[in-house]
Predict the structure.
Amino acid sequence: MSQESVIDARGLRYRYEDGTLALDGVDFQLGPGETVALLGPNGSGKTTFVLMLNGLLAGEGEIRVCGMRLERSSQTAIRRKIGMVFQDSDEQLFMPTVLEDVAFGLLNQGAGREPALEAAMGALEQVGMRDAGRKAPYHLSAGEKRRVALAGVLVMNPEILILDEPTTYLDPPGQRELIHLLKGLPQAKILVTHDSCFASALAQRAVFFVKGRLAGEGSVDEIVRRFSWDGRE
């Protein structure tokens, strides 16, 4: 496997309990600082794939993250390398205040309360949400929730960011703000998205999933030209 990849996945296969084959032999690499868009129709395997990358789903194949092979003994270390922002920000926001939400991961790892809150405030400042620290998450707009969820990931200092449908519920100004924010972050990124304009603004490369396989790879514009969203070239 390449020593230059922060993610190197080979032969990934996953079958759900109902017999559905969600992944069928996926090979994938992500370079340091690279942004890759995962495109494809609903049910093509994109979300299953990213859930396998940090061990939330266990199937067949080999995964290395930052040089570590994913196995039971390395799951905790690997999950610290990968920060995942889910499609629905409400899944990640559950504490009484925004600041407590962002600090939760550090506190859960045993950090002291004051250092954790200080780091959380720094992460909120990084995403332009410093003034929201005392607010309840449910008072935030969709775009603000997305920023806070991202801050909760960034405070853990991951080397890789995975964002699942990050433009969901965002209006055009919110999408532009998110693009600007993500462009300024140094981490390698995987974007699971149906939004080709968003992908084109951020990703150096795109891969297209069809029925659990990678059917194509290239620039975002090339992949959008080649494939329709039902997977046909």
Remarks:
- The first helix runs from residue 46 to 53.
- The chain has a mean pLDDT of 89.
